[in-house]
Amino acid sequence: MITLALSKGRIFDDTLPLLRAAGIEVLDDPETSRKLILDTNQPDVRVVLVRATDVPTYVQYGGADLGVAGKDVLIEHGGEGLYQPLDLKIAACRMSVAVRADFDYQAAVKQGSRLRVATKFTTIARDHFADKGVHIDLIKLYGSMELAPLTGLADAIVDLVSTGNTLRANHLVEVEQIMDISSRLVVNQAALKLKREPLRRLIDAFASAIPT
Length: 212
Ligand code: AMP
Prior knowledge:
Layout: E1 2-6, H1 10-21, E2 37-39, E3 45-49, H2 55-60, E4 66-70, H3 71-77, E5 82-100, H4 105-110, E6 115-119, H5 122-132, E7 136-140, H6 147-151, E8 156-161, H7 165-169, E9 172-188, H8 189-194, H9 196-209
Helix pairs in contact: 1-9
């Protein structure tokens, strides 16, 4: 049995065409079914639905043989025990710094004052500001980061940006792009040895179906 860990939403939707290219059809729709283990047309392949941030953990400890996770999630997890053979180029976006439109970010950074930064992505934020030599107080949040500068909780946020609509709707401006983000295939290293043939076939099929 091959177990693939996916998160609902963007990653699940964008992985379906890659699975199809490998001859795999998922038989349930996660938007209408409450099942967490989804069968496929291949009796020896199943999909498990987990939270996006849990995908690397499932694959690391062998709860799944492989999975699809964003670069952001992989950096925050650390990537221990994971083989990362492919950038699937799906669920693309960027990690950015954003502030209130009336906040002078360049001046704040130049003055060497401490910046209060709210984010879910603490490793990425800490590394980014350390590289710039900017001292920060990091405030860990789990969602609705846009609220932090609006309520005075923080000066800046580090968050994923795709169209920029969420920032605009909340009167925030993107002042720095930290890195491009897309989703990667991650594979359990022990499974790669024990189930070499079927996993290789799947990885090769994914590789030839990556959008250009
Ligand atoms: P947008 O309004 O299109 O810029 O999207 C920004 C919102 O969607 C933010 O709340 C992000 O956390 C989320 N988002 C955008 N792209 C992604 C992605 N590829 N993966 C996960 N979350 C995303």
